[in-house]
Amino acid sequence: MSITAATKTLPFNKEQLELIIAEYGAPFHIYDEQAIKENARNLLAAFRWAPSFKEFFAVKATPNPHILRLLKDEGFGADCSSLPELLLADKVGLSRQDIIFTSNDTPAQEFVQAKEFGAIINLDDITHIDFLAQTAGIPDTICFRYNPGKMRNDGNAIIGNPQEAKYGLTKEQLFQAYDLVRRKGARHFGLHTMIISNELDLDCFVETANMLFDLALEVHQKLGIRIEFVNFGGGIGIPYRPEQEPVDLARLGEKIHRTYDQKIKSSALHPLKLMMELGRSITGPYGYLVTRVLHKKEIYKNYVGLDASMADLMRPALYGAYHHLTVLGKENAPLDHLYDVTGSLCENNDKFAIDRPLPRIDIGDIVVIHDSGAHGHAMGFNYNGKLRSAELLLKEDGSVKLIRRAETIEDYFSTLDFKDL
C-alpha cells in the first residue's frame, strides 16, 4: 500500500520543534500568534460595510488570557458562558458591552456577576426572566436566544437538530419574553441564535442572517420593540481535512451585506448592529498538539502510542472527529503503513486516528496533530490521573512564550484532603 500524502502546512519545522521540546518538554499545545491575528483582521474586514459589527470570541474555545488579550487588541470582545470565563474576560481588560454572557441552567451568582460587569445578558429560557429579576435585577439591555425548532430541519452531530437541542426559546415564547422584560424595565433589546456548529457551507450562515432579520422585523411590527442588535452566533467550521476549503469570509460578508440591504436598510431597524461569537474558526486552525511516539505495538492491528492522550485532545474520541497528523521529517514519505494512533488512557476510544495511512513511524518521532487551537486544551481532563499539558504561543518574531505551564502532580493533589487517613 502506498498513498500520496495529503498535506497541511506548519509554521515551524522539525529542528525548531526539537529545540522547543528540549526547553518545555512534550506534549504541548502551541498557537501561531501571527496567523490568529491575520485571521481576526480578515473577519473584521469582511464586515467593514456593516453599520456596526462586533465579534465576541467564544472563550470556551481557547480560554487563555494571552489569546483573549491579543484578540482584544484586534477589537474583539468575549462570549462567556460561566463565571470563570467572565472573570477571564475582566482580567484582560474587557468590560461592559464588550462581553456577552450566554449560558444555560445558569446559577444566580453568574447572573449577578454578569450584571455587575455590565455584560450583555443573553437569556436561554423564558423562565430565566423572573430568576434574573429576583437574583440580579433586569438590566437595561437584554437579549434572547432563539431556537427555531421544526422551522429549520437541518443540524449536525455537534449541536444537533434545533428541535432536539436544549437551547433557546420558541418563537411564541420569544414574543412573550420581549413584552415581559419591557414591562420589567428593559430598554434595549437584542436577538441571538446558534443552530449549527463546525459548518463549512457559508449559505447556512446567510440563511441564519435572513431568519434573524425577518424575526427582528416581525418583533418590531407586532410589539413595537426595536431590536438593536442581532447575534448570528458562531458555527463557522474549519477545514480539518486537507481536501476541505475554509469558509470564504469576504464572500460571506458580501452575501449578508446584500440581504441586510434588502431587508433592513430601508426599515426602522437600520442601523442594526451585527454580532458574531466565533471561536473555532478564529483560533482552531492555528493551534497544534505536539507529541512524541513512546511505543509501537503489533497485534491484530498496528498501534502507535503517543505521550499525549484524549486528555489533551478529546474531539476524536468524543465525536469521531478527524484531525490531520504530520510526522515531522517524513512529510514527503509515502503513506505505506496503516496505524491506530493512541494515547495511554485505560479507554479503548483513546485514539487520535484509526486505520490512518501514515509513513513508517518510529519510536521517538515527533507527531503534530493539527487544528487543535480551539476545543483542544480547553476540553482537557484528569481521568486516569493524566496531567494537562502546557500551552505555548509562537510569537510573530519567531520566539516562543509559555502561556500556561503543564500541570504537576502537586496540582492534581491540591484539591484532595489527606488529613486523618
Structural overview:
The protein is α/β, with parallel strands linked by helices and 421 residues long. The protein folds into two domains: 14-30 and 285-413, Lyase, Ornithine Decarboxylase, Chain A, domain 1 (Beta Barrel); 33-282, Alpha-Beta Barrel (TIM Barrel). It contains twelve helices and 17 strands. The protein has helices spanning 14-24, 33-46, 65-73, 83-91, 108-117, 128-135, 171-183, 202-223, 249-263, 280-283, 315-319, 409-413, and strands at residues 28-32, 53-58, 77-80, 99-102, 120-123, 141-146, 188-193, 227-231, 273-276, 287-298, 302-306, 325-327, 337-342, 351-358, 366-369, 390-394, 400-404. The strands form two sheets. Strands 1, 10, 11, 12, 13, 14, 15, 16 and 17 form a nine-stranded mixed β-sheet that branches. β13 (337-342) and β14 form a beta hairpin. α8 runs parallel beside α9 (249-263).
SSE map:
Layout: H1 14-24, E1 28-32, H2 33-46, E2 53-58, H3 65-73, E3 77-80, H4 83-91, E4 99-102, H5 108-117, E5 120-123, H6 128-135, E6 141-146, H7 171-183, E7 188-193, H8 202-223, E8 227-231, H9 249-263, E9 273-276, H10 280-283, E10 287-298, E11 302-306, H11 315-319, E12 325-327, E13 337-342, E14 351-358, E15 366-369, E16 390-394, E17 400-404, H12 409-413
Parallel strand pairs: 1-16, 2-3, 2-9, 3-4, 4-5, 5-6, 6-7, 7-8, 8-9, 11-13
Antiparallel strand pairs: 1-10, 10-11, 10-15, 12-15, 13-14, 16-17
Helix pairs in contact: 2-9, 8-9
